[in-house]
Design brief:
Blueprint (H helix, E strand, L loop, with lengths): L5 H12 L6 E2 H8 L4 H11 L8 E2 L11 H11 L3 E2 L2 E2 L1 H4 L10
Parallel strand pairs: 1-2
Antiparallel strand pairs: 3-4
Helix pairs in contact: 1-3, 2-3
């Protein structure tokens, strides 16, 4: 297993700060941190994301992390009151900009 690097630690720290009912896209996280890109964030999440609220990290179109996790994502989103459009997050209403993260 790869050892966790500082970028991975920053990604996971930010994901833990996303409020319930809100989400960030993979690219949003990279942009907020000012490093990496959606694929690098996705790699961090697939490797170490199980211990953070992974369902709050979505694709830019509001779809969940992976099709095989859709049921679990929907359950978490509904429990948290995340705004949905069908089986996707309504990104206009649910996207979090990180303003209250007290981060960096």
């Amino acid at each position: 297993m790869d050892s966790m690097n500082p970028f991975a630690e920053r990604v996971l720290d930010l994901v833990e700060r996303i409020p319930p009912g809100k989400v960030m896209a993979y690219g949003d996280i990279a942009e907020y941190l000012g490093e990496g890109g959606p694929r690098q964030v996705g790699k961090v999440m697939s490797t170490w994301g199980g211990g953070v609220p992974w369902w709050r990290v979505v694709h830019a179109d509001g779809s969940g992390a992976a099709p095989d996790h859709l049921r679990r994502c929907l359950a978490h989103w509904r429990e948290e009151g995340t705004p949905l459009r069908g089986e996707r997050v309504d990104m206009r209403l649910g996207r979090w900009d990180g303003r209250s993260a007290d981060f960096q």
